[in-house]
Request: fold
Amino acid sequence: MSVKPEESPSESSKSNSSDNKPQEIRYVNLYEAEEKVYIRRITGFYQRLRRYISAPLIIGFILMPWLVIDGRPAMLFDLPARQFNILWVTFSPQDGVYLAWLLIIAAFLLFTVTVMVGRVWCGFTCPQTVWTQMYIWAELLCEGDRNKRIKLDAQQWSGEKFLRKAGKHAIWIAIALVTAMTFVGYFTPVRDLVVSFFTFQLDLTAVFWVLFFTGATYGNAGFMREQVCKYMCPYARFQSVMYDHDTLTVFYDKERGENRGPRKSGEDYKAQGLGDCIDCSWCVQVCPVNIDIREGLQAECIDCGLCIDACDSVMEKMNYPLGLISFTTEDAAAKKKVKILRPRVLGYGAVLLAMVSLFVYSLATRMPLLVEVMRDRGTQMFRITDGNVSNVYTLKIENLDRKTHVYDVRVSGDFAFDIQGYKAPPILEGEIITLPVRVVVKRSELKGEKNTVKFTVIARENPEIVISHSTTFIGPSK
Ligand code: SF4
Ligand code: SF4
Reply:
């Protein structure tokens, strides 16, 4: 935020005309515009690693909604049908606990990875980073490297400038559109979506979301870029809490690099009091968040390693040893003993392992059936006819399996309960049926007012799909 005292010429002349005392008008700028970052093209180990990691992620993201498993999309969050297909399982809103569980596991995985290897998620796999990488590629392709882009921006508009800019924005919009269509394809069948899009038959809701995500991708990866990481991402705010002295991070070797400064080749720079840093600023020019790693560990650094590639290529040209900037830990840099298994890593790791094991177990033993039994309170508590006592219940059965089932219902308990009025209908996948049923028992058998009756609902063709539910059976007091 900057505060700029300025005087408006028009306001100033007004004040002079009234009392001849110039009044100072202060303008406070609450928004400091970010300097445009012109990233330099760089090749090297970490740049290649970023590509090798991001390429399968992008391909996976685009192909996943097109994949079909058991005749249905491998990944489809069908909100109107309240069905969420994830690979071989179809979840219903009642399975929300699995989603919550998954989010907690993801959070602990992030904590464990961060405490060990810093912000590699940010630098290598985060969608903001991966999409920005694609957008930078389009920028380099159409407008050239850093110096050419600076020159192009400073130039007057010309045919060439227009074509270069138009080409870049066309690629950006195409990437944004594919991203938006793919993302919406996770919520509506992607084949229908694409066909409707190209035949101009998309409904308004789909049009809105496609346009919304196209705009969001174009804005985030094209213009906001590092500002998303610096100011919008909550993870950037609290990641420093997870760091310790043995967390791997990008580190500039100050002792070796300083004093920094230019030098002529062949000169004994050490005799001049210079270190290995030639102050070429390449490490800053390649940095996607526009920081200078030589100023020490900074919250903005996403651990992408591009400054390492840049500096190594400079060191190579100068015939100096590589690694002036490197991935290392604070303790390793200070020549102290590095501890890999430390309490924080073990703590996060243990919680993560426990959560994953429980999650896998509960998923493997998940019953694709939901049963609710409610004693009918609208009618009499019980009825006595022909020496039998009866209670009425409402039975709710939800089929969470991927095929139609017929469910048999049995009742049991301390007495010889019997069920009346239940005819087992076929229940389709995802369907819920609600049925009134009557449970009867001989009055002579009942011992008291409050008794327990157990309902067992069992799939006829697969007895492993079974749920039991106990409830109260009310009888006469004597
Ligand atoms: S300082 Fe280096 S590692 Fe950190 S964001 Fe910039 S280029 Fe990436
Ligand atoms: S790239 Fe290396 S040599 Fe160049 S300024 Fe950065 S640290 Fe110094």
